[in-house]
Amino acid sequence: MSDTSPGPAPMPPLRLPDSDYGSVLADQLRLNGMPEAKVREVVAEVEDHVATTGQDPVEAFGQPVDYAAQWQPFSWRHGLTQMAVGIGVAAAGGSVFAAVFTGVLEPGPWTNPVLLNSTTLLLFGLLALNLGVIPWTLMALAVRREGRWLGTGRPKYDWTLRLGGGVLAGVGFGLFVWWAGSWDVGSVHGPPRWLTLVAGLLLAPLALRLGPKPGDRRRPSPPGIPPQPWWRQAWRALRGRG
Amino acid sequence: MPRSRGTREDRQSQWLKGVLDLAVLAALARERTAYGYTLMAALADRGFDGLKGGTIYPLLGRLEDDGLVESTWGDGDAGPRRKYFWLTDAGRAELAAGREGWRAFAKSMNDALETD
């Protein structure tokens, strides 16, 4: 009886470490918006199957992009939400910087209002571009490419993408400077510095926890382990440990 | 014009898509409790060899979402953790209904294929 899975890969598959498949598959599932608990289960099933049968994971399950789509297809709604959360990370960083920077420009108590001017707007634009837009678009592209050609020997074009990302970020920032330079907003008084600082410090770990992380290469923990409380997840995210 | 071998295989693949869930439910009914690989072996014993993990595991996931099977994680044989599946009452009812439906369909199709 023939199988109903997609047809043969366009290039002969190479044997690869099973853990590579698990990591790349986990990336694809996260990119498609699958909750982490479910990602753990899907990857653990694959790894158990491969350990039991000794089969090549690409041969048994297909390319990670295709296998992930069978569980949860990619949705642009999820992608745009992730990008918005990435901009939230930028807002958090911008808030902390603005609270401190105002104190440097105009020394005074923490109850003084934050200054909002062209400089802080430029900073926010730069952070939003580099934390929200660039990671999601270019890193997601790299992750998708890797998950489509795993084990086929095709180059990943990582450096091409990184260089492209740098050029794109530079052009985008240049355009933003040009646009913001022609738009003099003057100086506006925002909320108190202490409130801006606290809001930024609270938002940062939350946004980092929820934000776009394509290509972070985290392998999921085994299933059956209860999830950590939110505050511990946020603390780990703040320390860059997912 | 004679049909190509590829077309015949496509047809078999289409048939399988329509009934594989029932075959999986039936295999689970026979095995009582099974994990992915034993289920595939049980299906291979009944002629469904060549099925791949990429087909079976998402199907089991859909059956679980529909409440037709349940599962739990247990320890594997000195390997990673393993997910064991079994039929629910709803799964047994679905299997019974599917079996009746298939028999009626197969009888109609057999009649339709007669040339005398």
Account of the 3D structure:
Chain B: It comes from Knoellia remsis. The complex is a heterodimer of chains A (242) and B (116). Chain A is mostly helical and 242 residues long. In chain A, 65% of the residues lie in helices and 4% in strands. Chain A has a two-stranded antiparallel ribbon with strand order 1-2. With 116 residues, chain B is an alpha+beta fold. Chain B has a single domain, classed as Winged helix-like DNA-binding domain superfamily/Winged helix DNA-binding domain (Arc Repressor Mutant, subunit A), CATH 1.10.10.10. Chain B is 65% helix and 12% strand. Chain B is built from four helices and three strands, in the order H-E-H-H-E-E-H. A three-stranded antiparallel sheet of chain B has the order 1-3-2. In chain B, strand 2 (69-74) and strand 3 form a beta hairpin. Chain B is globular. Chain B starts with a helix and ends with a helix. The model of chain B has no long low-confidence stretch (mean pLDDT 89).
Give a concise summary.
The complex is a heterodimer of chains A (242) and B (116). With 242 residues, chain A is mainly alpha-helical.
Provide key terms for this protein.
heterodimer; A: about 240 residues; mainly alpha; two-stranded antiparallel ribbon; disordered N terminus; B: about 120 residues; alpha+beta; Arc Repressor Mutant, subunit A; three-stranded antiparallel sheet; 4 helices; 3 strands
Topology:
The complex is a heterodimer of chains A (242) and B (116).
Chain A: H1 18-31, H2 36-53, H3 57-61, H4 64-71, H5 76-105, E1 113-116, H6 118-148, H7 158-181, E2 188-192, H8 193-210, H9 230-238
Antiparallel strand pairs in A: 1-2
Helix pairs in contact in A: 1-2, 1-4, 1-6, 5-6, 5-8, 6-7, 8-9
Chain B: H1 5-31, E1 34-35, H2 36-45, H3 53-65, E2 69-74, E3 82-87, H4 89-113
Antiparallel strand pairs in B: 1-3, 2-3
